[in-house]
Amino acid sequence: MRAEVVAVGTELVLGDVVDTNSAWIGRRLAEAGIDSHFQTKVGDNVERIEAALRVALGRSDAVIVCGGLGPTPDDVTREALARVMDVDLVRDEEVLDRIAERFERRGRPMPASNERQAEVPKGAIVIEQRRGTAPGLVCPLGDRVVYAVPGVPHEMTEMVERAVVPDLEQRGGGGAVIVSRVLRTWGEDESALAEQLAPRIEALDQAPNPTLAFLASGMDGIKVRITAKAPTMADARAVLDAEEAAVRAILGQRVFGVDDETIESVVGTLLGDAGLTLGLAESMTGGLIASRCSEVPGSSGWFRGGVVSYASEVKFDLLDVPEGSVVSATAAEAMAAGARRVLESDVGLSVTGVAGPETQEGVPVGTVFVGVALGDEVAAVLLRFSGDRTSIRRLASSAALDLLRHRLLDRPG
Amino acid sequence: MRAEVVAVGTELVLGDVVDTNSAWIGRRLAEAGIDSHFQTKVGDNVERIEAALRVALGRSDAVIVCGGLGPTPDDVTREALARVMDVDLVRDEEVLDRIAERFERRGRPMPASNERQAEVPKGAIVIEQRRGTAPGLVCPLGDRVVYAVPGVPHEMTEMVERAVVPDLEQRGGGGAVIVSRVLRTWGEDESALAEQLAPRIEALDQAPNPTLAFLASGMDGIKVRITAKAPTMADARAVLDAEEAAVRAILGQRVFGVDDETIESVVGTLLGDAGLTLGLAESMTGGLIASRCSEVPGSSGWFRGGVVSYASEVKFDLLDVPEGSVVSATAAEAMAAGARRVLESDVGLSVTGVAGPETQEGVPVGTVFVGVALGDEVAAVLLRFSGDRTSIRRLASSAALDLLRHRLLDRPG
Fold first, then answer.
1. Taking CB atoms and an 8 Å limit, are A305 and B311 in contact across chains?
2. Which member of A14, A26, A205 has the closest CB to residue B14?
3. Which of chain B's residues have a Cβ under 8 Å away from the Cβ of A284?
4. Are A22 and B15 a contacting pair at CB < 8 A?
5. CATH number for position B161
6. A69 near A75, Cβ under 8 Å?
7. Cβ-nearest to B305 among A23, A26, A308
8. Beta-carbon-side half-sphere exposure of residue B227 (alpha carbons within 13 Å)
9. Residue A357, exposed/middle/buried by CB under 10 A (0-12, 13-18, 19+)?
10. What residue ranges in A218-315 does DSSP mark as E strands?
């Protein structure tokens, strides 16, 4: 059973709205074990929607078309479906009654334009609308099928869950489950990871289940996605567990988390478990690390706060950084120690460097010093990044948090 | 000239990642006056990418394929292009040299896997890579063309701007220009703005050029987009100028900026022009405002820094907030004054409140106090927001910056 998605809306093709519906449907189909290889976006134009549906039906058993079921003249998915089915649109009185009732309950007269929503391609089965005025449609085409659902996200998700996925599962007849797990890494680039994991990739090439894929995600590091297909969810999880273990055996501590875990949430957990609190001193990252830490739910248990010492005088006067270069190991160490003292925390983490676009004190753009004050040790590390100002700031924030993660993992006891 | 987009990546079809690249390219094509009717997403599979490219080439003059140019074995866009062109992949030594140089500059050996990125379908023209290791490709197919660009957003946007759009414009030969301008507002919701602008919307309904559209954008406020279509760029700009003046006459100071301006960049300009510096004290926003301010290029001219006083003790000990409720007007005022003193700035801005998910000191989630210390006045304002933790933090950061913007605009002299 193969299904694909056609998302309808000129605003999607013009890029005024990002199409999140297709992504949601894609994930839902994968969870249900239904293969889904293509997704198409098309504007509000009856010929083009018809063309997109014909292409989709030529390569998939089922198509979910999403959007274009509203009451306004630019909503033409119904017309396109009638063309593909080669039938007329007929008015469904029951649907019309339900739309009229809905307006009555809200104490408003039904605009004439809403009558269009009761028009149904002959031979299509109506999916009752529970959240909006637009009913869904199941349109059989021989052994294939098109489901039409509204484009409003909460109407769409409800209808796909209630009517589309169960119908697809029944048609598919107990298919397999496809599940992914993402191992999140920091410290190596994509090609270095691929090289280290080459033995795994070669092994999997022989029997392509599970599969491994890499995804470079900027300040979120490189993601290694494991995807497994199996008859049941339990079987799929067992495949994921085995492959995760194999990947971790190779990558070790470079894997910082799984799925939705972030470097900051992992650092928070390590700090919380150790009963330690964190104070920050940020210069070039300008509050980005503080913002990331405070975003973690429950961070008040371990995050004391930070000093954003953007101006040099703030470093000197508030953090007791010695006069001299503020982009140096000495400055980073003093900032980490200063943060710990001023914020009364157990651990101090600092970042100073040059985000660009101009060099500073003759130091090139991308130069970053990260300081860590932990226990009796106060030390700084020199890092280098390339990219624009925004990228350098973001990469530096992740690198600093990851350095702290390693220090916490390597702590004796 | 018709162009369409094919976005490559299994993570896109599975819904693990929302495809924002296609939306960006769609918007860019519209701005360039290039028709774009379809967008397709396809997984990392050479047969399916080939199939998607063939469908796209069957209905459009140009195709932009985005992603699948990386160094790992699942990156197979190059192979799919060679199949569509019916040619072999050949190694481009110049591309290889450039990739090798890139690694050399970073002091790392080039992994063998990166050699794949130097393979080019015979007859394709290489688009030099400036931000990553993946070069782009221009693949001519008779009177049609496929452009291949990387999937990493900042690499993609740079390459599309520099090489793809100019080439498309040249091929398309003088059509109409479609240009948009975004007026950015803060302080009213979408329906209130629509109501105030009803007279403009009605006037434009008679002659639909330009058009007005609203886009709610969270912490970036509500955007009012004016779109004009005209034979030349100068004509289109004149239409935009006239409509911008009409909208500003109605919305006044609620318009904080145009296009890429942000509340923080506008605040920075106001501060810079007045010769004032800013210090922050953030509790619930946890460094988000500092991060936004320091992201503005040139912010070192007006941004002194901030104190992220996440723990109450930091408020008491460092900022001299009086003991008692830390979610109060008194605390916000003391924080603003404390920030100004500790950071030696001219202006102090503070935020304290409850981001949730739990209430704090019996204060409901979404309660926010913003304090401003400017000249002789130190004052706090109570605001309320709804939403989840992340939304409330973001909205509070924008509201605080916007409050400061109004104070600076209303300053005597």
1. yes
2. A26
3. 294
4. yes
5. 3.40.980.10
6. yes
7. A308
8. 19
9. exposed
10. 222-230, 255-258, 278-282, 303-309
Q: Among residues B142, B172, B202, which one ends one of the domains? A: B172
B26 touches chain A (CB under 8 A): yes
Out of A28, A36, A305, name the one closest to residue B309 (CB).
A305
Q: A185 and A168 in one domain?
A: no
Query: Is residue B340 located within the same domain as residue B297?
Result: yes
Whether A293 and A380 share a structural domain: yes
Q: ipTM of this predicted complex?
A: 0.77
Q: Domain range for residue B243? A: 177-258
Task: Report the chain B residue with the minimal C-alpha distance to residue A309.
Answer: B305
- A92 CA: distance to closest CA in chain B (Å): 31
A291 touches chain B (CB under 8 A): yes
CA-closest candidate to residue A214, choices B405, B69, B408: B69
B87 to chain A, closest Cα gap in Å: 25
pLDDT in tens, chain A (413 residues): 899 999 999 889 988 888 999 999 998 898 787 889 999 999 999 999 999 999 999 999 999 999 999 887 788 999 999 999 999 999 999 999 988 888 888 777 887 878 888 999 999 999 998 877 789 999 999 999 999 999 988 889 999 999 999 899 888 755 677 788 999 999 998 889 989 999 898 888 777 789 888 888 889 999 998 988 888 889 989 999 999 999 999 999 999 999 889 999 999 999 999 999 999 999 999 999 999 999 999 999 999 999 999 999 999 999 999 999 999 999 999 999 999 999 999 999 999 999 988 898 899 999 999 999 999 999 999 999 988 899 999 999 999 999 999 999 998 76
Same domain for A272 and A253: no
User: Of A216, A214, A232, A234, whose CA–CA distance to A224 is shortest?
Assistant: A214
d(CA B226, CA B201): 11
Q: From the CB of residue B170, how many other CB atoms can be counted at a distance below 10 Å? A: 8
Note whether A304 contacts B: Cβ–Cβ < 8 A.
yes
